[in-house]
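Materials and Methods. Structural model of LuxR family transcriptional regulator. The 108-residue sequence of LuxR family transcriptional regulator from Nocardioides ginsengisoli was retrieved and submitted for structure prediction as follows.
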Amino acid sequence: MDGTSLYALAEAQLEIARTATSGRAAVTVYGGHEHRLRQTLIALCAGTRLGEHDAPDEATLLVIDGDVALHAGSQVWNGHAGDHVILPPQRHDLEAISDSAVLLTVAT
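The predicted structure was written out as tokens:
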């Protein structure tokens, strides 16, 4: 059995994001093209956004660290460390209010 500390991984990715010109970094925690489940840890510096994009079939977002805002149409969900949300089945974007790390889980 393999285990991963999401907190340690989040801190490492935040350090990378802080030096990246894009203000973000990401690493696959589990999955890939050969799996139906994929988990990606995404780190975003404060003020950074993942631009509007289509929603996958099924996905959730877990805030590991920081504060984020998920925008979907006219709706906004504000998430803080420990919060979990099911992504809406529509175009959306994600904004880091403070330096943040989230775990995106997608089922295809």
